[in-house]
Specification:
Elements: H1 7-16, H2 22-33, E1 61-65, E2 75-79, H3 88-108, E3 120-124, E4 133-135, E5 140-142, H4 157-170, H5 179-201, E6 211-212, E7 227-228, E8 237-238, E9 242-243, H6 259-266, H7 268-281, H8 289-297, H9 308-323, H10 328-339
Parallel strand pairs: 1-3, 3-5
Antiparallel strand pairs: 1-2, 4-5, 6-7, 8-9
Domain Peptidase M4: 72-170
GO molecular function: metal ion binding; metalloendopeptidase activity
Domain Peptidase M4 C-terminal: 173-342
Length: 348
């Protein structure tokens, strides 16, 4: 079940939020009870710079409105090329799908999720104050949030990029959603979600926030986002939500039966390795670590049950293949993994 808000955070809200945020507590309980379908999981923004040479990007977007019900796909309200509707959730989803398609097309030469022009579909206004967003194997689905803790989930471009990247993983490495391979699945979505946002904003690695889900908390929450890639464990520290529990080093790896073996928790470890490698190299992250990670994802060399060490070794190998032996890129990737407790020898 590939959702952006991890179950441990929803459980915390359901248990602790009621006195102060009764609507949020009830919304979290409903979100925990509901299971998404079992299969899981561009136009540049006006006025933003084009940081790479222009290239065609022709997504096929279809946005539907669930109108507060939990029935998919809902009523089709905007198709490719149609004007903005004035419904913020509809138009944000449309733009976010376009931004994601644009980054994958221009940077990696990938035409949509499946690489073969798959239509990009999304449903907004899902459920009554639904506290999550998810990829169900066919479409993005966005709740509106409870209004007390969570805003609408189309407010964050990194959330949109994250969920669509689950679709890319389904069509490439097929990382099993359990344990370390599941944490890698979540990590890949965080990494490409961050890259989508950085590409749309023209941000280099130093200027980027490295936050996933920035903007989805209301002003009542003491927190910046759901996760911080560069500083796992620091995204929020709130009297209701508690403190962000993500580890950022292998020595703090969390063994648990919850959350498919801690997939949203332990993804902080490879997240930090990625962000550190990107900031060491500087410049635009999609031009170096992004390309390396995409090469790994599409290499055919990953096992569905890949662990952190195996994935790390493949990133070093791909860095050498793309940028050359003992290149800055290979060394930065090695340094990133070493900083989180995973030592990888140079690729031979």
């Amino acid at each position: 079940m590939q959702q952006i808000v991890p179950p441990y955070l929803l459980d915390r809200i359901a248990q602790a939020a009621a006195p102060r945020f009764p609507i949020a507590a009830e919304a979290a309980r409903r979100a925990l009870l509901r299971e998404p379908p079992a299969r899981l999981g561009i136009e540049p923004l006006p006025g933003l710079p084009s940081v790479l040479p222009d290239a065609p990007s022709a997504p096929d977007r279809r946005i539907s409105d669930a109108e507060g019900r939990e029935k998919l796909p809902g009523r089709l309200v905007r198709r490719e090329g149609e004007r903005a509707t004035g419904d913020e959730a509809v138009d944000d989803a449309y733009d976010g799908l376009g931004d994601t398609h644009r980054m994958f097309e221009r940077v990696f030469g990938r035409d949509s999720i499946d690489g073969a022009g798959m239509p990009l579909e999304a449903t907004v206004h899902f459920g009554d104050k639904y506290d999550n967003a998810f990829w169900d194997g066919e479409r993005m689905v966005f709740g509106d949030g409870d209004g007390e803790i969570f805003r609408g989930f189309t407010d964050s471009l990194s959330v949109i990029g994250h969920e669509l990247a689950h679709g890319v993983t389904e069509h490439t490495a097929k990382l099993r959603y359990q344990g370390q391979s599941g944490a890698l699945n979540e990590h890949v979505s965080d990494a490409f979600g961050a890259l989508v946002e950085q590409y749309a904003l023209g941000q280099d690695a130093e200027a980027a926030s490295w936050l996933i889900g920035e903007g989805i908390f209301t002003d009542e929450v003491q927190g910046r986002a759901l996760r911080s890639m560069i500083e796992p464990g620091t995204a929020y520290d709130d009297d209701v939500l508690g403190r962000d529990p993500q580890p950022g080093h292998l020595r703090d790896y969390i063994e648990t039966d919850d959350d498919n073996g801690g997939v949203h928790l332990n993804s902080g470890i490879p997240n930090r390795a990625f962000a550190l490698a990107a900031t060491e190299l500087g410049g635009f992250a999609w031009e170096h670590v992004g390309r390396i990670w995409y090469d790994v994802l599409t290499s055919g060399r990953l096992s569905p049950d890949e662990d952190f060490a195996g994935f790390a070794a493949e990133t070093v190998r791909s860095a050498r293949e793309r940028f050359g032996p003992e290149s800055r890129e290979e060394l930065a990737v090695m340094h990133g993994w070493s900083a989180v407790g995973i030592e990888v020898p140079p690729a031979g």
